[in-house]
Structures are given as structure tokens and as C-alpha cells.
Design goal:
Immunoglobulin-like, 3 helices, 12-stranded antiparallel beta sheet, 6 domains, mainly beta
Length: 987
């Protein structure tokens, strides 16, 4: 009976119009047609997505022309497309390009004035970027609370969830409930809560409803910090007195599918009267996925409404934590066209905190027909049934703001709302989707559906490293991907979630992101050590069901401490990972210069001057664990182990570029304070020295060895080299997706260019078959001929007493160490493929012994470390200035995604002493042209992308020693190069 009374009260509320002095009316100024009933965004709404459409709904078609619509921002008028929905009553304004971050915009309609609203037009402020320059990621230089919810003009209820937004993204490691964040009652008792953080958002959801009339205090201390190292200015404190929702009742609403059979993109589905888009569909638009990925959602929503007569101006409502919507599988299409080989499986959207909202008078009209405005803020978790898609997509989406309208039709409350979700794809690209949310209350509330019983708890679906521990490195997080979202209040380190090494507890930090539990050890995990991760049934889902207990075990790769070597930069972006000979640099001509070499006359190509888009950071990957404390940003010209400077064409430092360092164990990201200026010359410098040990302004490994920057100088193994200085030019922002890839797994785990006894080399597969496949990240060498003083040759092993070559099929390979940076450009219609830009990599290989008979006398010729430098493409003028191209295609015969590319390489054996003598040889910038590579694109169970490439043609390497005194003809056979590139951890 109470539900029926509630619906009558709600209908009365929705039928009531305004009545308060704060309400506004529409002055038509010459137009007499159409009242404004609704807008998205709401006037003065902050944090609006840069991809959001703008919606204005009228009481009837207003007769506006496209020229009557003006959107202005920081750069003036914005180009927009105008469309109509709901029979012409709803105006939809879509900017032709994403709006600027952290910027104010105004939507004006000619001849209409919204009285009392920001100068008569609709005003809103866009949100911050998740990547790029610091300025794009922050709203203010000081780290402060920029928004607290519920706002002062919205009642704080006993069932309210507290939500805060900050001027800068939070450092999640500083969010420590009971210390940096605390909610206490009037007796100073700490209140049990669930704390959710992500980006610049913090949600505090009390486990139990608060007591009406009691005073609570929310305290944030200055220990709370942003990712840019700024402490919360002055801390913050809020005194809170919740109001009474009783007698509340639950209103059951149905969020129905756009169509029970048809897909979201088909004709004839139910469309939103606000946007004209299919209702309850979650579209994901991204370069990686294209614009066709969409899932239908449906389910019942159980909304608790406070006693409406007590709140005529702002009726509070709650959707309880644990509520969920279910969706149909997403087609996973790379670039929007190429099937990945799997779909997502069923999609689940879970409410990970109590969602709060209000039914309010429309601020724009006093018309009796004006619908009520709905405001609703949701904390959601997105998960999928397929483990690969779940690992790639599962995540928490905090504080999704929906703005809508509510009306009563035929005894049912009908709510339509608009919001934008911005999930991450593979952890490297921010997708977006405009959600046209629609739900209707059941007319017969007494017989409305009850919540579906849920008796199953979380089950481990996939995990990192899983069965791929050889691809795992210190500093990588351990990730447990569950099939549903766990309740993080049930996770207690050392009790319900454990990380141990031989029974001893390993301290770690943790967080829940979607259906994933992410463990971050306080200290990097140790090579050659076995670890166990245990999840007990004390962990529960959002409805209180216990998890299936799991204990998983993995061992870190073996690591040799023998023959240590200084680390090198495996990739740099932008640029090329080698120190440059200053005499070869000509910045005015766009020339970076040649890699410095001990045979400078044979140093190879003059490298071009790269560009760096305004919305990107500088990114470096290292071959070994690094001492992050040695990475110090300089504050003046020529100062610091890491420097970023504006320079002139002569290379003179003009000024230091303010930036923030984000050092990791094997990575360094340099984030500029402001976007790179288009056309401006810059340089970044990674400091080193041509000596052993660490020193001032030197980047060092965790083993205390300096960064080795110039392998072509044939340095001693324990020294560094000249500073690695890379000049570049600022460029306009790009929407290409930057994807750094690592060569994993690899034999040379310690990156000393040797195969140590602890490291696993080529093996027979299957055992006893006599077949030795080229392992991942290796290249096979064989002898095809010899001449001069050489009367016999063999790779990997010597000769019998009769001087016949020994058989050693497991000793023919040299093992590669490196990485590559790529850009996903998008679909190319002519190629029927997704275009990928590859920035030329440098691969370092282990030394390989070539055994020879010198006039019948056996001798060994160690190649020393080999350097394989990929070359830029010819730009048509004879200069190599263009990055490489690759293509992701769908092979219908193999039913498989594939990747193909071609590389021109330069091979250097700077440390080789042929025949044990300091004889000259020709392996300096030795060309290996048109190395054709092709292989499958796959996804690990945890969602990481893996690209496997094999060489399609044979390549000859004709070694000439002493100007023809001796020759050895080597060859890489077909399939002799086997590369595996893998994306990094998604979390």
C-alpha cells in the first residue's frame, strides 16, 4: 500500500510546477513558441565531458534554424552540428571536435533568454584530461577540493553518499581511511565506510545509514596528495547533519532494452526523447575500437525515495549499492572493423556505492506541464564474462553524472537522462560513450518484481602474471580479474587477501578497479623467487556472497648477478635511443644527427628531428630495474639528471620547461606543465657519464651502474656514456593512440648481452623430436659459406677431430632485448586494415660465438653484443625521415588477426675482434634491407595484447675480415627472426 501512496506523492510532485522565488522563466524576445523544459548539461555544471552533446528540450518545436545556435568557448565560436529529436522538440548540438579541457563554454539560442541563468545562456565547464600536460589534467595550481556533494542547496540525507572532486588527480596511495581521510560521529568514533578513489574523485559511502540529526565530521588532512606531488592545501573539514528520509519506500523502475531482439544500431529501436539515440545502450567510441561497439543494458532499478511531502523542492532518492544492470555482449572489433576473435560475453554494470539523486523543479519554466529535473550520480563497475575482454575493459567509473527529466505517463514515472561515460581501453586510450538512460516505474508497485536472488560469489577468471610469469618484471602489479565486482570493505590484507613468499607475508598496497583486485608490492618482487597469492571466502561480492577461495603460485624469472652490465634505454619517445655525435647535428635543417660511434665515418643514417604532439608526454623504457631516486628533474639549464629545455636552432638552452617526473622501476614519464608549443624546439636529456658508478646528474640502475647511452662506442660493460640528448619540435595534438610495447618473454633476463647459466635458451619442442624452434625474441644464424684464410665455419659450436662441424641446433640463436613504440592510427579503407605507425626501434642481441678454421686451425670469433638499428623510411627525397608503417589485418584463412610490417636494419658488431685479432671488418652499419615480418595478434587471458612476428624471407650477412683476408657468409633463414611484442600491465 505504501508504494501506491508513494507513487501518488511522486506524481503530485512531478505535476507541481515551481512556486519558488528562485525559479526562472524564458523570455522569448520576439519568439512566442516553445518553453525550455530541460538542458544537458545543466546550467553551471562542472566536469562535463569534452565529448558531451548539448541538449535543449522545449515544450514544443521552437522553430529554430541552425544559424540560431551558437556555442562559444575559450577560442571563440565552436563548429557544431545540429539535429532534432522527439518530433523536433529536443535540440541536440554536437561539437565537430572534442571541446577543450578545463574550459568554460556558453550555448546561446538566438532570440531566447534564460532569465537568471548566467547571462541568459547555458553555461558549463568541461572536465580535465586523463593524459597529457599537467595543465590539461588539473583545474588549478593548488590542490584543493573543487566540489563537495551533496551541495548546500541539496539536502544531506541519512542514506547519502559523500562525494568529492579535487582540482588535481589524486595519488591513490595517499588515500588512507582513518588517517588522511576520516568520517567521525559526535563522539569522535570512526564510521565504517567504503572509500573509492580514481582520477580526481573520491567517494565515501557509509556502510550503514547515518543517524538523522547527529553531527558527523569529514576530515581530510594535508597528507592527501595529488599525483603531481602537491599536498591538499590546508586540508579540509566538513560538519554534516543528515536529515531523516523516513518513512521512505522503494520504488521499482524498469530500465528496458532499446529492443528485445534488435541491436542498438538497428532501425526501429526505442529512442530517447532527449537525444534521439537508442535508450539504455552503452556505446564505446575509441580509436582502438572504432565507433560501432555498443551493448544493450536492461534490468530493474530499486530506488529508495525519501518521504516526498517533507522535501517538495528537492526530493532525495537512492539506488542501493549492489544494484546492477545487465548487457548483451560487445563485439570486440579492432579499429571498428576487424574481429578480435572473441566478444565480451555478457556485460554487467554494478553500482559499487549507493547512488544518490534528486527530483527537482525545472529551473527554466513555471509551466504546469514542465517536467521535474532529475540529478543522479553513480559509481559504477564495468565487467564482462569473457576473461580477455574483462581484463582489458573492467574498471570503476566514479561519479558518473546523469541529468534528466521525470514525468508521469499513464500512472508510471518515466525518467529520461543523459550522461557520458569515459572508460579506458587496454589502459592506454580513453573511450567515451553518451548514455541515453531511460527507466519507468511499474504501475502496480505492490506486485512489482523483487530483486533477483544472487547466491553466487566472485570467481577468479584470469590473473597477471598467470601462466606467463616469464613476461612479468619487478614493478609490475599482480592483478586478479574476478567474474564480478568484489565488495572492497571485505578485503583485508593478510586476512582475506594475502601475498606471501615461502610462507612469509609480503607487504603490499591494493585497490579494486571494476572486477579486478590490483596488488602493488611495497618493494619490487625479486627475480628467481616463488610467490603465492591467496584470496579467501572472506572476500564477498556486493550482495554478500563469499568468493570461491583461490591460491595461485608463480615464480619470477631466473636472474644472474654474474657479469653485470650498465642499463640502457630500450625505447625513448620521441626520438631514437642513442647519444648523438654533436658534430653531426643540424637542428636548423631538421637533423638530429648520427648515433655516436667509435667508427663515426660508418655511423649510419642521420636521424631526423622528431615531433611531439601537444597532448603527449616524454616516455622512456629501460632494460633493467632503475634507481628512481637518481632521476632528478633539473630546474635550470644543464642541471639535473633529467632535463627538459627550450632551445634555439644552435642548441642553446633558452629556459627550463616546468615538468613533473613520474619515475617507475623500468619506466620514466616526463609530463610537461603546459602543452608543447607548436613549432618550438625543445630537448630532453638523460644524464650519464663515461665512467663507472653513479654521480651527480647521472641516471643509475638499482645496482648502482650508470645509464649506458652509446653502445656503438663499444663501451666497457660497467660504464655509462655521453648524455642522451634528444631534440624535438612541438606539434599539434593528436588523437592517435600511443602504445609502448616490450619484448617479452626474453632469454637475456638481466640484459647483460650474454646467455648466463641461469637463463633458458633454445629448447627442443617437443622433447625428442630433434626440432628446435626459434624462441621468442631471438634470431637464428647459420653458415652458408666461407673463403680466404677460413677453411671452415660453424655457429655456436666447433668441430670434430676430423674438422667436421659439430651439430648443436640449440646454439644457433642470438637473443634480443628491446622494445618498440607504436601509434594506432585507425582504419585505412584502401588497405582494408588498421594502420599502425612504428617508431624505429633498436634491438640489442647477446654475443654469439662463430667458430672458424683459420687455415685448418680452429678458433672462436665472439661477435660481442650486436646492435640492430631500425631505419626511418625514405621520404622520397633520399632522406630517411619518416617512421615505419605496419598493418593489423584479418586473415580469413587463419581466422586470425595478423600484423605485418617491413624493416630496413643496420647491423653493428662494434666489439667483435675477428679471429681474436684487432682486424678491420665490415659489420659497421651493415644494411639488412626489407626484412619482412608477419604474425598473429592475440590477447592474453588478462587482456594484454601480444604481437608475434616472424621473418618471411632469408637474409644474408657476408662478413668480410681484413679487407678480404677472411670471409664468413652467415644467413638468417626464413622464420629466423622471431619477435614478440607485448603491451604493458593494463592496471
Amino acid at each position: 500500500m505504501m508504494r501506491s501512496v508513494l507513487l501518488v506523492a511522486a506524481a503530485s510532485l512531478l505535476a507541481a510546477c515551481g512556486g519558488g522565488g528562485s525559479e526562472q522563466t524564458v523570455d522569448f524576445s520576439g519568439r512566442e513558441k516553445g518553453h525550455v523544459f530541460y538542458t544537458y548539461p545543466a546550467d553551471e555544471q562542472a566536469g562535463v565531458s569534452v565529448h558531451a552533446p548539448l541538449v535543449v528540450q522545449f515544450s514544443e518545436p521552437p522553430g529554430l534554424a541552425e544559424s540560431d545556435v551558437t556555442l562559444n568557448g575559450p577560442q571563440g565560436a565552436v563548429n557544431v552540428a545540429v539535429s532534432w529529436a522527439d518530433g523536433g522538440s529536443s535540440l541536440v548540438v554536437t561539437p565537430s571536435a572534442p571541446l577543450a579541457f578545463n574550459s568554460e563554454y556558453t550555448l546561446a539560442l538566438a532570440g531566447m533568454t534564460l532569465e537568471g541563468v548566467g547571462g541568459g545562456a547555458l553555461n558549463f565547464v568541461t572536465g580535465s584530461a586523463k593524459r597529457g600536460a599537467v595543465e590539461a589534467q588539473q583545474q588549478a595550481a593548488d590542490f584543493v577540493v573543487s566540489r563537495f556533494s551533496p551541495a548546500e542547496n541539496r539536502p544531506l540525507m541519512d542514506f547519502s553518499t559523500l562525494r568529492l572532486q579535487f582540482s588535481q588527480p589524486l595519488d591513490a596511495t595517499t588515500v588512507d581511511y582513518g588517517s588522511s581521510v576520516t568520517l567521525t560521529d559526535n563522539a569522535d568514533n570512526v564510521i565504517p565506510v567504503s572509500v573509492l578513489s580514481g582520477g580526481n574523485r573520491l567517494t565515501i559511502d557509509p556502510v550503514e545509514d547515518l543517524t538523522p540529526g547527529n553531527t558527523y565530521t569529514l576530515t581530510l588532512t594535508s597528507d592527501l596528495a595529488s599525483v603531481f606531488g602537491n599536498s591538499l592545501t590546508g586540508g579540509a573539514s566538513y560538519s554534516l547533519v543528515p536529515e531523516d528520509s523516513a518513512p521512505s519506500e522503494t520504488l521499482v523502475l524498469e530500465a528496458m532494452a532499446a529492443d528485445p531482439v534488435k541491436g542498438c544500431n538497428e532501425d526501429g529501436v526505442t529512442r530517447s526523447p532527449l537525444t534521439g539515440a537508442p535508450i539504455n545502450c552503452v556505446p564505446l567510441v575509441a580509436k582502438l575500437l572504432g565507433d560501432t561497439t555498443v551493448s544493450k543494458l536492461s534490468g530493474n532499478v530499486f530506488a529508495d525515495l525519501a518521504y516526498i511531502p517533507n522535501y517538495p523542492d528537492a526530493a532525495p532518492l537512492r539506488i542501493s549499492k549492489g544494484s546492477l544492470l545487465e548487457g548483451e555482449p560487445l563485439d570486440v572489433l579492432i579499429g571498428g572493423y576487424l574481429p578480435a576473435g572473441f566478444d565480451s560475453g555478457d556485460v554487467t554494470v554494478s553500482f559499487v556505492s549507493d547512488a544518490n539523486g534528486y527530483l527537482l523543479p525545472t529551473p527554466y519554466s513555471q509551466s504546469p506541464e514542465a517536467p521535474r529535473r532529475v540529478e543522479l550520480t553513480l559509481d559504477l563497475a564495468f565487467s564482462t564474462a569473457d576473461s580477455r575482454a574483462n581484463g582489458a575493459f573492467t574498471q570503476s567509473l566514479l561519479q558518473v553524472d546523469l541529468v534528466g527529466r521525470a514525468i508521469v505517463e499513464e500512472g508510471r514515472m518515466v525518467i529520461d537522462a543523459v550522461g557520458v561515460v569515459e572508460p579506458e581501453v587496454l589502459g592506454i586510450e580513453t573511450a567515451y560513450g553518451v548514455l541515453s538512460f531511460h527507466m519507468e516505474s511499474y504501475a502496480d508497485q505492490e506486485n512489482a518484481p523483487q530483486p533477483v536472488a544472487d547466491i553466487s560469489g566472485p570467481v577468479l577468471q584470469s590473473w597477471q602474471p598467470g601462466d606467463f610469469a616469464d613476461r612479468f618484471r619487478p614493478g609490475d602489479p599482480i592483478i586478479l580479474n574476478l567474474n564480478e565486482t568484489p565488495d572492497q570493505t571485505t578485503i583485508e590484507p593478510g586476512v582475506t587477501l594475502m601475498l606471501t613468499q615461502q610462507g612469509s607475508a609480503v607487504p603490499f598496497q591494493w585497490q579494486v578497479d571494476g572486477a579486478s583486485v590490483v596488488l602493488m608490492p611495497d618493494q619490487p618482487l625479486s627475480f628467481g623467487t616463488e610467490y603465492q597469492v591467496a584470496l579467501t571466502d572472506g572476500v564477498q561480492d556486493l550482495r554478500g556472497n563469499p568468493a570461491s577461495p583461490e591460491t595461485v603460485t608463480f615464480s619470477m624469472p631466473s636472474f644472474s648477478t654474474n657479469a653485470p652490465r650498465s642499463p640502457n634505454a630500450t625505447t625513448v619517445y620521441p626520438g631514437y635511443p642513442c647519444a648523438v655525435d654533436p658534430a653531426s647535428r643540424d637542428l636548423a635543417a631538421g637533423e638530429q644527427g648520427q648515433c655516436v660511434s667509435n667508427t663515426q665515418g660508418q655511423a649510419g643514417d642521420v636521424l631526423p628531428l622528431p615531433t611531439l604532439p601537444a597532448n603527449r608526454a616524454i616516455a622512456i623504457q629501460f632494460s633493467q630495474d632503475m634507481d628512481t631516486s637518481s632521476m632528478v628533474l633539473g630546474t635550470s639549464c644543464d642541471d639535473g639528471s633529467v632535463r627538459v629545455e627550450k632551445i634555439d636552432a644552435a642548441g642553446n638552452c633558452l629556459e627550463v620547461v616546468p615538468a613533473t617526473l613520474s619515475p617507475q622501476l623500468r619506466e620514466l614519464t616526463i609530463i610537461p606543465q603546459a602543452p608543447w608549443e607548436q613549432g618550438q624546439l625543445y630537448r630532453y636529456v638523460l644524464g650519464s657519464h663515461s665512467a663507472t658508478g653513479c654521480g651527480q646528474n647521472v641516471i643509475c640502475s638499482s645496482a648502482g651502474m650508470p645509464l649506458q647511452t652509446a653502445q656503438l662506442l663499444a663501451p666497457e660493460s660497467d660504464v655509462g656514456g655521453p648524455d642522451l640528448s634528444v631534440a624535438f619540435v612541438g606539434a599539434e595534438a593528436t588523437d592517435n593512440v600511443f602504445l609502448p610495447l616490450r619484448n617479452l618473454p626474453k632469454t637475456d633476463v638481466n640484459a647483460n648481452f650474454l646467455v648466463d647459466s641461469e637463463e633458458t635458451a633454445t629448447v627442443e619442442v617437443p622433447a625428442g623430436s630433434g626440432v628446435y624452434p626459434v624462441p621468442a625474441n631471438a634470431a637464428r644464424l647459420g653458415v652458408t659459406g666461407y673463403g680466404g684464410a677460413v677453411t671452415g665455419a660453424n655457429v655456436g659450436c666447433g668441430f670434430t677431430l676430423l674438422l667436421q662441424p659439430l651439430s648443436c641446433p640449440d646454439q644457433k640463436d642470438t637473443y634480443l632485448n628491446g622494445g618498440i613504440n607504436v601509434d594506432i592510427v585507425g582504419w585505412d579503407e584502401a588497405e582494408q586494415a588498421v594502420e599502425v605507425t612504428l617508431y624505429p626501434p633498436v634491438l640489442y642481441t647477446t654475443s654469439k660465438d662463430v667458430h672458424a678454421q683459420l687455415v685448418g686451425v680452429p678458433t672462436s670469433v665472439p661477435t660481442g653484443p650486436l646492435v640492430m638499428r631500425a631505419r626511418y623510411r625514405d621520404d622520397g627525397t633520399g632522406r630517411r625521415t619518416l617512421p615505419l608503417q605496419g598493418w593489423i589485418r584479418y586473415d580469413e584463412v587463419e581466422d586470425q588477426l595478423t600484423f605485418d610490417t617491413a624493416l630496413d636494419l643496420l647491423l653493428d658488431a662494434q666489439e667483435m675482434e675477428p679471429l681474436g685479432l684487432p682486424l678491420p671488418h665490415n659489420l659497421y652499419s651493415y644494411p639488412l634491407d626489407d626484412v619482412q615480418l608477419k604474425g598473429p595478434v592475440d590477447f592474453l587471458p588478462d587482456g594484454r595484447m601480444v604481437i608475434g612476428l616472424e621473418s618471411l624471407t632469408a637474409k644474408d650477412i657476408d662478413v668480410n675480415i681484413g679487407s678480404g683476408l677472411a670471409t664468413i657468409d652467415l644467413a638468417i633463414p626464413v622464420g629466423g627472426v622471431n619477435l614478440t611484442f607485448q603491451s604493458g600491465s593494463i592496471k
